[in-house]
Write a structure and sequence with these properties.
This protein has 261 residues and is mostly beta strands. The chain has a single domain, classed as Outer membrane phospholipase (ompla), Chain C, CATH 2.40.230. 13% of the residues lie in helices and 47% in strands. It contains four helices and 13 strands. The protein is globular and about 60 Å long.
Length: 261
Amino acid sequence: MKSSNKLLLFALLYFFDLSGALSQTIESQSEGDLKERIQGDIGVAVYYQNSFTHTGESSTQILPYAYFDYDRFFARIDTFGFKTIPIGMGYLEIVGRYNQEGFTPKSSPYTLLNPRNLPVPLGLGTFQLTPYGAFFIYGFNDFNASKGGKMAEFTYAAEVKLPLSINIYPLIGFDYKDKKYVNYFYGITPAESQISGLSAYSSNGGISPYAALAVEVPLGPNWVINSYFKHKWLAPAITNSPLISGRYLDNIFISLDRHFE
């Protein structure tokens, strides 16, 4: 079994087998939490991402914001999917992700490289809401750009309630990208090296840890401001590439949203 598949399988089995509060069986999981109405936030956000490659620039975009459940369907900012069988304190989920990791080189000699097309990550995951916090576990296969590159992601989120109904959510986690995924986006083939003069580069997969903070500020019974900052320390397998200009990736957004109970 490939290492990326082992990582995802281990993570899923580990969290599904935890004792105590995390050991609810499928039979004990009620479907009463599935509602045929929207529960969560929908709005519009300004998103920012710093540039960490020599081939592009930082980006600022105005895009829709969605974090809600509707029956078995869910959207979690950049991740969306469908809940299947109950498991643990959540569901086994079919998941997809909106991922902008692709890029077209814009400056010489990087313009001589092939464009890195956008990935289409699809896979399985789970969201486990426990008395100790929330756990998000996802495993993806890229069905487009890297032609089978794999990524796994784990996130833990806690909740801190403040006065005036303000909530903050500290998050920590990591993602793992396998050799095929890393080399498609950040590798340089011998043919590209010969054309561009850049050193050829290939690597194994790598783990990138991150920390984040989300803040939720209500503006009345039906409106809320959500803000989010995420700092990721990129894996050496990525930062050692001649394409990379930085060692971290920052994602920031602020959104104005309609809240649905």
